[in-house]
Amino acid sequence: MQLLGVQVRNFACFEQQGVSLYPGINLVVGRNNSGKTALLRALATLPTLPIGSRLDPRASADGYVWDTNERRHFEMDIIFRYEWTDAELQTIFVKFEEAANLGGPAPVARYNFKVYPGANIASLLSLEIELNGTSYPVLSFRKKDSPDLVRFTYSFPSMTAVDNSIGYKSSSTKSAFGYHFDFSDNDPYLSPLKILKPVVYIDSHRVATNSMLLQSVHDLSRNAQNLPGFLQTLQGAHPRKFQAIERFITDAFPEFEFLNPESVDNSVTLKLRHRETEKKIPLTHCGTGVEQLLSLATFIVTAPPSIVLIDEPHVFLHPSAERTLLDFMQRHLEHRYVITTHSAVLVNSVEPNRINFLQPPGRPFSERSNSDSAEVLLDLGYRNSDALFCDRLIFVEGKSDKVILPILLQKSVPAATLRNTGFVVMDGAGDPQVAMLHHEKIIRSLGRARMPRLYLFDGDKATQQRAIISKTLANSGETLPVAFLPEVEIENLLLVPSAIAAAINAEAAIADVEESNADPKRVAELLERFTASKGSMVLSRVYDHFGRRYNKERSGLLIAKNIDRKNQPKLNQLLEILRPVFEQ
After folding, report:
1. What global pTM score does this model have?
2. pLDDT for the residue numbered 196
3. Rounded (5°) CA angle 374-380-384
4. From edge to edge, which strands make up the β-sheet containing 482-484?
5. Co-location of 130 and 236 in the same domain
6. H or E element, residue 340
7. Domain of 258, in residue numbers
């Protein structure tokens, strides 16, 4: 049975919002005030479920609950996918062997709870299974505020329900919040929830104390307040684990050489020895990132398999430290990490199906697979951050388009609009329609299906090919937005004598060589002489004449900086083509 994720309803800015909980790294991404930290607080209430754990008091979610006529609460769904070999299915299907032998997609289990974070209470509302698009109740109440919990079993394949409550026992207690059922760890229905017991919440600010009374500490507190004593005890009792933590910290922060828990005057203090000066620096005198990663690494190395909630670790970290953290977590995949972040380093390190993009009022949980096309595009340099940190996307055919196009637009498109526009190179291999559909899979898997976008192709496409490309359909059945450059290729818009002359002379100055003495009049003569359909070929010959080598990206950028709608009227056509994507 595989834990897929969680969905919350009526919480913070969300009507409903799902988040993946796959083994390994899961990211929560969104704009400021999109509910990232709030969603972590909701996940931190998982220990309130009736599975014998307790809530981390630092991760209070009560302030995010909507005001309703009932006591302050929100609803949470826990979603699993069964496998036909799971013993739990024997309690649901009357003829389990027959169902298992037929195979097909296994059912999805959805546990629905009502969570009262202010009271640290969660009540089971129902357990349903979803099979072939239809939901079937397995556990539910006969009526509202009733102590009678009904169990259903099903004959297969007709899925006829049988009330099989007789013999199913659970102890219930009544409180101001209704009836609550206490389930044993071996309960056939609730036992899968045991995986949610250990939850670790790592704050984005200082949590540990620098020193404490000298004593043996064998359990790290949830808020890491006893970190000095715990690490000193760990150093003696489990030196390999201590060394793993020390090695990680000194790799992430190479200015430090050793981690030292020191005993002085009946207290233990944490210090880090500086590699060059050999001075021992108290933890409180180090950066917040050092303390946060030290607490996090200690939990990762010493805790049982857990759900680890990490709030914006990138805030206090250099990109190199972020990469070290990623490598460390990849070596400890016994945990499920949920990380809120704005970091392109983190976002571009995981598969798209592990990224949860938040856009209030939210969207329901959906099981997303990591498609083969996603892996291909990532290998080719596509970045998840292109789709996540931009308001719109313009897909282009080549690297030079990606460099040149935004420069050509900067004098005509507002700076803020252009800054929030991503320019992405299509994979360029094979059928253009296949390339577009590959990118559409990525966008959907990142939750950005509503994002304004345009697929911009060179103008050298034949009429028949243009017609085929323009009829490409998205998964929703809608035609994908497609446009074509007003010229054969982007470089044809660069054939402006004054702009080319300025770029050639600028490149000579940058290279610190004798000036090329390129003047607009001479460049204009060469443009008349050199005839070719592709502007890049013409530019290459012009550059050769002046003893320079034309580079599509570098030279193209320098030329584009000197072009505007006055010296290149065809830019008006380009702007008209792109106008729809900028107006959305």
Report:
1. 0.76
2. 86
3. 50
4. 421-425, 392-396, 453-457, 482-484
5. no
6. strand 336-340
7. 204-303
